[in-house]
Amino acid sequence: MDSKRCGKTGWGGMEISGERSKQIKYLVVIPTMTAIFLAGLALVAGEREQGRGAPNTERFDMQVREDFFSAFAGDQQALERGMKKCEEALAKDPKNAEALVWHGSGLSYSAKKAFMSGDVERGRQIQAQGVKEMNDAVALRPDDVTVLIPRASIFLSAALHVPSPEVAKRDFQIAADDYEKTLRIQAPAFSRLPIHARGELLGGLAEAWNGLGETEKARSYLSRIVQELPNTAYAQRAKKLLEAPLKSGALETTCLGCHRQSEMFE
Predict the structure, then answer these.
(1) Cβ atoms 144, 55 nearer than 8 A
(2) Helix residue ranges, H only, the chain
(3) What confidence score (pLDDT) does residue 119 get?
(4) CA–CA gap between residue 81 and residue 64 (Å, rounded)
(5) What percentage of the chain exceeds 70 in pLDDT?
(6) Spatial distance between the Cα atoms of 213 and 70, rounded to a whole number of angstroms
(7) pLDDT for residue 35
């Protein structure tokens, strides 16, 4: 079975046929979504260390990050805590873009339970609401990397798994656009960001452009990884990929070393 295209449901509520295919798909998607999203959090952390991102002195990401780290690793109570914090922040300020994008990502993760239990309609509703919240958050703060990165991470993971080529293309494009904007914003301080943050961003760009069939763009980012991150797991993976023509499917250029939180900020 091709884990990159198993199942019959698209991102945001597309057509579905077969209960077992839905369950298999979400069993496959969620671990990858978890890893890619956690990797994306490293980019947010790196940006915070450089003093950029939203001018929010309360550092909302610091209020919820650990809860979502644990939640996406399977801790339901942590998910509930994180979602509650987001909801409380949104009750005070419905236009709090950071709270909105985190809440939307939590909904996207939560939708898997409905699909896996066979409640397709509820899964569609939760997933669609999650996507809407992430999109609304970016519309509120289109140049804020602490909002762009979470959305890009979720959409990149989704694009690697949805069976519909049209939906996958749309999701890859959203991820590519968000990551490209993040790179432009971070450019002045990019060389000073943690290795993990730089590797995940460049790797995400390579993954997204390859998914769109733009192999030369993907190869350009792999080359940057080799040049700018020598003697790292990112460079090792990029070198291997550059030895042959790129193929469709996941390049596996992200989530390198992010299984331990301490490695995410080195």
Answers:
(1) no
(2) 19-49, 60-71, 76-92, 97-117, 120-140, 145-159, 165-186, 195-211, 215-228, 233-242
(3) 87
(4) 8
(5) 74
(6) 34
(7) 52
Structural fold of domain 19-265: 1.25.40
Token pair for 265: 């900020």
Across 199-218, average pLDDT: 96
Among candidate residues 46, 61, 65, the one with its CA nearest the CA of residue 198: 46
Question: Token digits for 119?
Answer: 């409640």
* Amino acid (1-letter code) at residue 221: Y
pTM above 0.70, yes or no: yes
Task: Give the integer Cα–Cα distance in Å for 235 and 257.
Answer: 13
Contact status, residue 220 vs residue 191, Cβ threshold 8 Å:
no
Domain ranges of the chain: 19-265
CB 233 within 8 A of CB 257: yes
Secondary structure in 3-state letters for 241-261: HHCCCCCCCCCCCCCCCCCCH
Rounded CA-CA distance 205/225 in Å is: 11
| DSSP state letters, 143-165 | T-HHHHHHHHHHHHHHHTT-S-H
Q: Dump pLDDT digits (tens) for 238-260.
A: 999 999 999 988 898 887 755 44
| Residue 58 confidence (pLDDT) | 65
